[in-house]
Amino acid sequence: MSDSLVIIPTFNEKENIEKIIRKVFSLNYFFEILIIDDGSPDGTADIVKKLQLEYPALHLEQRTGKLGLGTAYIHGFKWALARPQYAYIFEMDADFSHSPEDLVRLRNACVNGADVAIGSRYINGVNVVNWPMSRVLMSYFASMYVRMITRINIQDATAGFKCYTRKVLATIPLDKIRFVGYAFQIEMKFTALKYGFKVVEVPIIFTDRTEGVSKMSTRIFREAFLGVIQMKVSSWFRKYDRS
Questions:
Q1: Which of 32, 129, 149, 187 has the fewest C-beta atoms under 10 angstroms from its C-beta?
Q2: Quick count: other Cβ atoms within 10 Å of Cβ 116?
Q3: DSSP 3-state of 201
Q4: Are the C-beta atoms of 177 and 187 separated by less than 8 Å?
Q5: What pLDDT, in 10s, does the model give residues 71-89?
Q6: How many Cα atoms are found within 13 Å in the side-chain-facing hemisphere of 186?
Q7: Distance of CA 110 to CAs 76, 124, 202, Å?
Q8: In CATH, what number does 4-235 get?
């Protein structure tokens, strides 16, 4: 049994899923894994089920249909909160864009006082590998836009590689998180800060996937762009009380 749970949402990740699971379980620190699969037609969940025979600390939740990144993580957060052994709860992609070795560094940041630790691509310059320049610029300037609108001091506002302490997820009213795409990542950071939690950025190197297909779309980007304004305005009429 571990105090740390890594949540990995999947949709059509058969090329990556076994490799990422084996890599996480090979780390010096023992992490448990929860896969949230949104009905992948390529058999991703079947691969996970086979691996469960080998790894008792591998968990699988299957959902019907592609319901969105944000709802997958909310499902995973609630699953983790229902099990009191988990003190540290992680978000991570299945495609190796997030290096599993960095899980230990994110956990250490929370052990040493952070409430949320973000794997940041932009805290020390721009640390992105294999992205086209257009994608780098879109991501970098998106974070600048988020900082300008929300006034939060986070360099990588759209980052999806994070460690939360349990108290953060137990405090945030998860049913009130509105967004499902990349705006979800912004909203979770913004909300954690509004509740007064300590959020730190840990420098990582982000490497674009080499197998499988990216889930980024124009609709997701538009949700993030417009959602930031909606989120900021809504915060003026909301109380953030940790008592």
A1: 129
A2: 23
A3: strand
A4: yes
A5: 999 999 999 999 999 999 9
A6: 33
A7: 19, 20, 11
A8: 3.90.550.10
Q: 199 - beta bridge partners?
A: 116
Q: What pLDDT does 153 receive? A: 85
Q: What is the tens place of the pLDDT at every residue in 163-214?
A: 999 999 999 999 999 887 778 899 999 999 999 999 999 998 877 655 545 5
Q: What sign does the dihedral 76-168-171-236 (CA atoms) show?
A: negative
Distance CA 19, CA 160 (A): 20
**Angle of helix 133-150 versus helix 182-194 axis, rounded to 10:** 30
Does residue 218 have a pLDDT over 70?
no
Closest CA to 74 of 61, 87, 58: 61
Q: What is the rounded distance in angstroms from the CA atom of residue 55 to the CA atom of residue 49?
A: 10
Could you tell me the pTM of the whole model? 0.88
Q: Locate 145 and state its tokens.
A: 């836009």
